[in-house]
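Priority: medium. Attachment 1 of 2:
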């Protein structure tokens, strides 16, 4: 009965967000929530997206449903942007943000007979909940040591070899959340080979295209997987790359043998239909409008490059700092919004309570959320707590 329902623990990130909100100090620093912030601490709407919205508002004649697959031109343009020519052979469906694409993808894996998903850990805090919701068994494999900040490929490749054919392996394409540690070319090649040899599905989560090494190079890993692994599922988020977080822009792409494509597409339709039926239109329509127009596309990629440069600058400043024994210099080599500092729970709590510096309980900092004006204070707070 509803009256007997048991409470759930709050999402750990939402807990930090609420603590930050309720902290009365004027000089508090929020490195918890995962959104990009500019030099002024703002997350502005990109000018290219604003212009796309203006055009849509002026030209849109109907608000009827977008259809089962969603915005087909959006899917084509996003697919081409991320995967190049390989996009042509993929089955696709628009989703409710990258999170919705992940959920749909896990449901799809389950429908295709998978029992397990290998999760390289640490990973994004929401991945386990999404895997569990699809009733898949999560197989954790620790592939990164936060104290040394190094990727260890051996357990990952051994873990893949132990999976059954059809099981899934979740890989983040670029700008790893929460580690910032990305696979290099040789590591992607080894992963592709291991997935193909074990006949498992590579499930690639692409959420930060353009935030690391630039649009093209950030897609190298997922393109390599597409070229070498027979079964691939890709969840794409437009939230960060287009700054449209709340619009829930996402898509799911599936690589299957040509004889299985129609069946795969029909399964995606059925899964979406029994969940939310049709995807939202506005965010995807904005992205489609930006990508379809040469002028808006150029404007957008300049803005995205500005974000990337800002992150690089912040990373370089953090990496140049000396903070007792913390391996700060490695932050420069890491990519995207996040890095995870090797801090103890007591140090993380002291940063929060004594210095008003908020990060997740795991020590993840949003590098892209640290304004230049707060840099020195953040470093001094770190020096005070980390011996
Ligand atoms: C690794 C990763 N995947 C997927 C997503 C999903 O993004 P959204 O649902 O906002 O599109 C996020 C967002 O934080 C993420 O960090």
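Attachment 2 of 2:
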């Amino acid at each position: 009965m509803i009256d007997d329902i048991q409470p759930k623990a709050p999402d750990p990130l939402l807990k930090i967000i609420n603590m930050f909100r309720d902290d009365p100090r004027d000089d508090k620093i929020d490195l918890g929530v995962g959104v990009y912030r500019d030099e002024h601490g703002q997350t502005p709407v990109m000018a290219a997206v604003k212009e796309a919205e203006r055009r849509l508002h002026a030209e849109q004649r109907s608000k009827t449903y977008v259809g089962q697959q969603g915005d087909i031109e959006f899917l084509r343009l996003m697919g081409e942007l991320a995967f190049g020519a390989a996009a042509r052979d993929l089955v696709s469906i628009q989703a409710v943000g990258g999170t919705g694409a992940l959920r749909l993808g896990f449901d799809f894996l389950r429908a295709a007979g998978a029992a397990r998903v290998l999760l390289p850990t640490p990973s994004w805090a929401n991945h386990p909940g999404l895997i569990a919701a699809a009733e898949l068994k999560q197989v954790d494999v620790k592939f990164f040591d936060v104290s040394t900040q190094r990727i260890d490929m051996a357990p990952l490749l051994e873990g893949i070899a132990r999976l059954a054919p059809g099981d899934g392996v979740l890989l983040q394409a670029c700008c790893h959340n929460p580690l910032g540690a990305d696979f290099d070319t040789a590591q992607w090649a080894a992963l592709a080979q291991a997935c193909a040899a074990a006949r498992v599905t590579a499930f690639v989560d692409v959420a930060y295209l353009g935030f690391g090494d630039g649009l093209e190079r950030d897609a190298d890993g997922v393109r390599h997987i597409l070229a070498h692994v027979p079964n691939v599922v890709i969840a794409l988020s437009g939230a960060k790359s287009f700054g449209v977080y709340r619009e829930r822009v996402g898509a799911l792409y599936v690589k299957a043998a040509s004889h299985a494509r129609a069946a795969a597409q029909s399964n995606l339709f059925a899964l979406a239909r029994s969940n939310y039926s049709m995807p939202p239109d506005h965010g995807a329509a904005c992205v489609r409008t930006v990508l379809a127009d040469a002028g808006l596309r150029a404007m957008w990629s300049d803005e995205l490059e500005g974000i990337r440069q800002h992150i690089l600058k912040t990373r370089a400043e953090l990496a140049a700092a000396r903070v007792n024994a913390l391996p700060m210099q490695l932050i420069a080599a890491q990519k995207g919004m996040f890095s995870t500092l090797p801090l103890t729970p007591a140090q993380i709590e002291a940063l929060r309570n004594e210095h008003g510096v908020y990060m997740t309980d795991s020590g993840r900092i949003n590098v892209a959320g640290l304004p230049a004006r707060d840099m020195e204070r953040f470093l001094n707070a770190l020096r005070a707590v980390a011996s």
